[in-house]
Amino acid sequence: MAGLGVIARERRAAFLFTAPAIFCMAVVAFYPILWALYLSLHRRLPIFGISKFIGLRNYIFLAQDTRFWNAFFNTLYFTLVSVALEFILGLAIALVLHQAFRGRGWVRAAVLIPWAIPTVVSARMWEWIYNSDFGVLNYLLVSASIISTKLNWLGDSALAMHAAIMVDVWKTTPFVALLLLAGLQFIPQDLYRAAQVDGAGPLTSFRHITLPMLKPAILVVLLFRTLDAFRIFDAVYILTGGGPANTTETLSIYSYKLLFQTLQFGYGSAVAVVTFVSVMVISFFYIRVLAGVREG
Amino acid sequence: MKRAGFYLLLALIVLWSIAPFLWQLITSLKPVSQLILLPPLLPKALYLFHYVNVFTGQPFARFILNSLIVAGSTTIFSLIIGTFAAYAISRLRFPGRGLMLALVLSVAMFPPIATVSPLFLLIRWLGLRDHLLALIFPYITFTLPLGIWILTQFFRQIPRELERAAWIDGCTPFQSLYRIILPLALPGVASAAILIFIFAWNEFLYALTFTTTEASRTIPVGIALFPGIHELPWGEIAAASVIVTLPLVVLVLALQRRIVAGLTAGALKG
Amino acid sequence: MKRLFPTPIFYLLMVLAIVGGCSKKEDAKEGDRKGAVQTIVFKHFKPPGEPRFFLDLIERFERENPNIKVKDEILPASTDEQHQYYVINLEGRAKEFDVFALDVIWVQEFIRAGWLLDLTPYIGAQGLRGMLPGPVSAVTFKGKIYAIPWFMDAGLLYYRRDLLKKYNLTPPQTFAELINITRTVLQAERDPGLLGFIFQGKQYEGLICSIMEFIWGNGGDVISADGQVVIDSQEAGDALAFVRDLIYKHKLVPELVTTADEEITRHIFGAGRAVFMRNWPYAWNLFQRADSPVKGKVGITLMPHFQGKESAATLGGWQLGINPYSRNVDAAVTFVKFMTRYDSQRHLALTMGLKPTLVKLYQDPDLVASQPFITELLPVMLRARPRPVTPFYMMISQILQAEFSAVISGIRPPNKALASARKQIERILELERP
After folding, report:
1. Are C198 and C287 in contact (CB under 8 A)?
2. d(Cα C336, Cα C108) in Å, to the nearest integer?
């Protein structure tokens, strides 16, 4: 029934509807990204007034840079563990909050608090909580006899990364919970009732109704949480500064130190570009796997 | 019995979420000399001067106002622009839909610290240095990916039949977006609104770089500027963080009711 | 359903109201020349203590110079953030600030990048006469002066005078004495909450300041006088091994130092929980506050040295520089000269504990009366050692931070860490040579 007139009308509307977004992104996002790409092909050291085009040499150097690979695997580990934890906890919380009970609004507001506190504040807060001498975490754990000596959470190379992961999980689980909860509320109750009539238990309806219907929300959650985790900077930087001995240094921290502490603008941009490409690859993978979602 | 287990779980969840924040609250009421002493866990008497200092040491009320303006504008504009774009992507037929979605996503993939310098140059070139718009414009752009993706996923779940009927009746795309889709996607819109607001409320890097004077400063930068060259007034920081979390709690409470109301108004029919 | 969505008009009104409220732009005052009044912008970290003291100084300047107004803008405490701010702005040729405060380790880097105005024409080649030699060499390049030393920092050893007196002990001069004294006090006090010796061991610039005092105190160095990289010398290795042993073998230094910065150590010592602390002079004023648990119980002295060697203190401190893109150079120069003058430095020392860069001030009667130990500080300041004065310093710092941190967290042995540091530093000095 769709004639050419309708298609033209749709195209026109589509153009109008997407133009503002494209404009914003072109000016504010694409320009800096292209600039960073451009810089990454140069050797730019303002200290010596050097600004030379060197093609892909920064990337070749990067491939053999052990500090880069250290940062890369730190970031990968951080991302995998924290996203997995956030997802599981967030889903559990969303399921619980989906039930009807008195004071539901208040509980939802309370659950959002970790996400609501500014990162600069919550990271410092956790830095003090984790402090092995006067931090409240060690105090409580020792008082409850769960551990016998105070642990050096942020200074022990075995613990520091996990301490940072816990902070990220605490902070961003509400994000996951909120989006999954919104997705849950979209699922019509009739489906569950019909399933009950057919004799399906809660686990079965979870697997066959809830999860499939949640796929769109899950896709958004996993995608954006991974993007954010891979680019993590503030929280880890404040907690450990990338230490001890670069064991918690992520790609963004390495890039930051290159750009703003040692003023190696070309190489720092190259690390940022590689981070960008890695994230792109991961996202592509997600979208493929959850491809059944796209009803085209 | 099952109910008791459920409530226990609820209590654990709430505790886990707010325990560090509660610790902030307790810290903000401790006098300076007790800030790092453990025990005692709780202060013997309530010390309110940290809260006083927050407002007398700097124009903190102004920072709150600035943050409200920035976060509010960002949320509204980002939602408007994002809604239109998401509707187009999910409902209208045009070439490059998938590409558009991918492009939008790529905006959210780039490490922010590498974009600070070029953006700074742009802001200066536009003469927007120290203007709240210098923050609003980038914030809108960087929240568009999340907003567009959330809304796209939600819009897609709404059956086309609802609109088809409207189109046959001569509804324009705009009208069908406004009258049919939006009310049904309310949970998604409200969630996106909360997340965008929080992002703009807490953003630090760009706020620090693009604004320098107190007139245009926002809360996170205001808090970061409490300390002196080495001294860290932890009491004031704790007090400030309590103060700034409250509006967000209020916002969330208000929007939560909207979501529930939207559903009970007979939203989606099977 | 309509009531869930107010009409589009409402949205429009809201939007207009908000955009209208957006015009909170500061009037462009920079580079203003209304009549004869010039305004200069001064950027720096927030001064410690009461803001009033600092503003008093600025007001005094404005009174003396009625045709210059000063806009005082503060930056975050973290030196990283300040550095980042200046890098972004100066790389972008910003004219929005005229005078700014620099950490001593940035000066050479900024000079080479062309981000500091040459001040020699304005203050003369003898302009820094009477100032401490350490900061002077940090701000000079090829005979020209690029910044004026504002106040001075040097690493000091803080100790609990009351505890040492209780056991008839005198402050340590060698590290061996430090070990003995600490052990004696800890064993006698039998307080599980009392720590021995604390310093800044987090992976950041402060770590280098702390560790170099051990290395220099054993006769080692990073780069020798003739430009050779000597960080992996026997002396340096021994010093680093000593630090590691303090933590893991002698257990006189708690493991938490690997996460400690100035503030954390200051808090611990200030609560009476440590016998010795390495920190900058600023902490002393805070310990003398009325509500401080250690008021009157703190002594300071030079950092110890190894047997047969000399003590060293790391040079810190801040300088005032002028933005080369500034449009108010004359006013800026006047301001900088004022802020680094004798009476201004004295004011800052008296009210905020910021130690002066002018040698004469260490014998100033008012200052000595209020802070008697200042005369003892002078020898420390005179001998304060700068970290490698080279534009590569920030890169070297990155390398050293990682390696030092690896040693004190027990991840890598000192000889391996230092050998690796040497290789990396040599590569930097070669590769990056223009």
Report:
1. no
2. 19
**What are B219's two structure tokens?**
């809360």
H or E element at residue B128:
none
Query: Residue C123 and residue C127: Cα distance in Å, rounded?
Result: 5
Closest partner residue to A115 (CB to CB) among B156, B198, B259 is: B198
Residues C421, C399 contacting (CB under 8 angstroms): yes
**Reduced to 3 states, what is the DSSP secondary structure of residue C174?**
strand
Q: Is the peptide bond before A244 cis (omega within 30 degrees of 0)?
A: yes
Q: What percent of chain C has pLDDT over 90?
A: 64
- What CA–CA distance (Å, rounded) separates C50 from A54? 51
Q: Strand C99-103 to strand C315-322: parallel, antiparallel, or no bridges (unpaired)?
A: antiparallel
CB contact under 8 A, B259 and A182: yes
Which residues of chain B fall below pLDDT 50? 229-230, 261-270
What single letter denotes the amino acid at residue A69? W
Measured CA to CA, the distance from residue C169 to residue C186 in angstroms comes to 13
Tally C-beta pairs within 8 A across B and C: 119
Quote the tokens at residue A76.
């990968």
Per residue in B242-251, pLDDT (tens digit) is 888 877 777 7
Q: What is the rounded average pLDDT for all residues in chain B?
A: 82
- The DSSP code for C295 is T
The CA-CA-CA angle for residues A259, A261, A262, to 5°, reads 75
Length of chain C equals 434
* Residue in B131, A116, B260 with CA at minimum distance from that of residue C21: B131
pLDDT over 60 (residue C433): no
User: In terms of Cα–Cα distance, which of A283, A287, A278 is closest to A255?
Assistant: A278
- Interface chains of chain C (3 or more CB pairs under 8 Å): A, B
Q: For residues C370, C375, C379 and C384, what is the CA-based torsion angle, rounded to 10 degrees?
A: 10
Q: What is the pTM of this model?
A: 0.88
Would you call C303 helix, strand, or coil by DSSP?
A: coil
Per residue in C31-85, pLDDT (tens digit) is 344 457 888 999 988 776 677 888 899 999 999 999 999 998 888 777 888 898 9
List of residues 6+ apart from B89 with CB closer than 8 A: A18, B97, B100, B101, B148, B152
Contacting chains of B (3 CB pairs or more, <8 Å) are A, C
